């Protein structure tokens, strides 16, 4: 089976059609059995069509997989940096962030922990700088 992109020379309509082979297309063209589905014209010719390569999707999937792997690596590096340089405060993040901000005391280390989206919005509205960082689980394999 082969698929051709066909073009009507009268109404410039492009459409696709399947044939058992290029010989079948030529035969139907000679017998004037190919017509435009839009205007019924018999002035139908083959148009340029990009080839359908099987490996294209595999290469694209590989590129996407590589990008995903690179992003996971960067997130893992950020996570490692944060764990080594910041204090984990768990669910007390919102309380501790406010305490640091309003007490005006500089802690020895920055903090990280868990907070809801609403809590983060409230902190930002109060002028407390916070960031949300995607926290991925470490690969087990």
Architecture overview:
By secondary structure, the chain is of the alpha+beta class. The chain folds into 2 domains: about 1-45; about 70-140, no CATH class. The chain has 4 helices and 5 strands, in the order E-E-H-E-H-E-H-E-H. The chain has helices at about 20-30, 55-85, 95-105, 115-125; strands spanning about 1-10, 15-20, 45, 85-90, 110-115. The strands form 2 sheets. A 3-stranded antiparallel β-sheet has the order 2-1-3. The longest helix has about 30 residues, at about 55-85. The two termini are about 45 Å apart. The model has no long low-confidence stretch (mean pLDDT about 85).
Separate helix tally: 4
Overall form: elongated
Report the span from N to C terminus. 44 Å
Count of individual domains:
2
Strand order of the largest sheet: 2-1-3
Helix/strand class:
alpha+beta
Characterize the largest beta sheet: strand count, sense, and whether it forms a barrel.
Answer: 3 strands, antiparallel
One letter per element, helices H and strands E, the order comes to EEHEHEHEH
Q: Helical content, roughly?
A: 40-55%
How confident is the prediction overall: mean pLDDT?
85
Q: Give the DSSP E fraction (strand runs of 2 or more residues).
A: 15-25%
> Would you count the extended β strands for me?
5
Structural Rg: 31 Å
Which spans of ≥5 residues are poorly predicted at pLDDT below 50?
A: none
